[in-house]
Fold this protein.
Amino acid sequence: MTSSGAVRFWFRGEVRELEGVSPTLSVLHWLRGTGSSRGTKEGCNTGDCGACTVVLAERDGVGVRVRTANSCLLLVGMLHGRALFTVEDVADDDGLHPVQRAMAERGGSQCGFCTPGFVMSMWTAAEQAAVRGAVPTRKELADALTGNLCRCTGYRPILDAAVDATAEVVGRGARALAPQEFRAALEAVGEPAPLELRSGSVVHLAPTTLDGVLAALAENPGARIVAGGTDLVVELRLAGDDLRDDLVLVSTDAAAGLADITADGTHLRIGATARLDDVWHELVARAPALGRMAGRFASPAIRGTGTVAGNLVNASPVADLVPVLLALDADVVVAGRAGRRVVPVDGFATGVRRTVLEPGEVVVRVDVPLLSFVRTLRAYKVSRRFDDDISTVSAVLGLAQHGGRIDDVRVVLGGMATTVVRARSVERVLLGRMWDTEALRSAQAAVGSDVTPIGDHRAAASYRDRAVRGLLQRWWYETGADAPAADTDVWALR
Ligand SMILES: Cc1cc2nc3c(=O)[nH]c(=O)nc-3n(C[C@H](O)[C@H](O)[C@H](O)COP(=O)(O)OP(=O)(O)OC[C@H]3O[C@@H](n4cnc5c(N)ncnc54)[C@H](O)[C@@H]3O)c2cc1C
Ligand code: FES
Ligand code: FES
């Protein structure tokens, strides 16, 4: 297929084509600059505050997905084939959208800087609720707004507004856009041709096949792969101009089939570009106790944008999906020009931002065994802020017991070393023991044999050490002999 030098997308009721723009330009800066849509605000520029929240509609198999995104982390090329909506699109023909009216009536806006971002998150929550035909609970609405920060209101009035507005939207069908309108917008844009956006020595390529991705990497040694960009674009922003010369970005996002999630008799097979919210959905469906980690992974906008491969290849010691995949003995399927190979998640990362990937190789899938040994699975996250913050320390703990004796065990720790680690010494002292206080004390004492905790701006080494011992204690409270039965935590074949 001939490639397109223009980014083609839907905006303000029509198809737009952007040519000659820098591939590292963010959608936020395009909107506020050349796009002249200043309702969308710039706060942090690193995905943390939500002031820049926009809404994207995109193809999702045969359906349409409508999701929020942080426009500061979207490169303009990421609009290719999608429809973009900003706060200027929200008002109904006859006045304010219920979300906007409720924000005004409930005192949800004071200085107003955060308000457009909140409105876009609420608009999406209301639209999604209307599709389901169910009014969300206050807790669900609070979760939907975790990526939006406000320095003025104290959040209660904002939540009150969200409750009022979603009830009105669901009750009256007071929708801004019906699903067919999203669909019509995407049909007008059409199936995107592979993108080849160039400006000087900076290039953004978005092939539509895996072969195209591999060819682009082979032709451009040193090219950076980008999926959702929620790590990579932050890296670009923090690097300033250093990373922006002679930069070739190769998107995996448009490559057909890479986002599929399937389950067969033995494995859950998760495509590399599967979105984090879909991945967590599948995992939590099989082990509900993972829900407390899933809900604290970033924000809805980041979970709807970031991917499983990005979490693995970013190789952060505090990646939150990696310890879950490691505890489940998952494998990474990697493709290169020479063919495919399978690498265990355990050992895939070799250091901070370092993995076993060879130049030109791409992660294509993660295979999670469904007949895993694990009977109960628990995931704990300690972070400085409860919502939308990366872990200081995390622990994913799996246990198979028979008559109170430990048959098999996984102890995986995040934030304790330069990679997520499997604490094999702790596992060894637990194996074959009754799961009692004595075993707990031995496990806590063995942590030091597996890791020497790191200290950094998030926490001192001594804090991390005590935090992990505390998490092991909590695990024991929840799964030891006296703990209430928790069948819902069983990782099961489905
Ligand atoms: C505000 C904010 C909050 C966050 N909170 C959390 C959190 O709570 N927990 C957490 O774990 N993470 C968090 N993150 C980090 C990030 O969202 C995740 O790591 C996410 O999974 C990255 O996926 P991505 O698709 O956006 O990766 P990208 O940024 O696109 O890529 C990340 C890295 O992976 C490489 N890569 C991507 N796909 C492939 C592939 N198929 N093959 C080879 N290499 C590939 C890229 O080259 C890059 O080096 C947060 C980020 C932000 C901005
Ligand atoms: S400007 Fe803060 S999330 Fe984008
Ligand atoms: S109203 Fe001022 S930051 Fe939210």
Remarks:
- Residues 42-45, 47-52, 70, 72 surround FE2/S2 (inorganic) cluster (ligand 2) (CB under 6 Å).
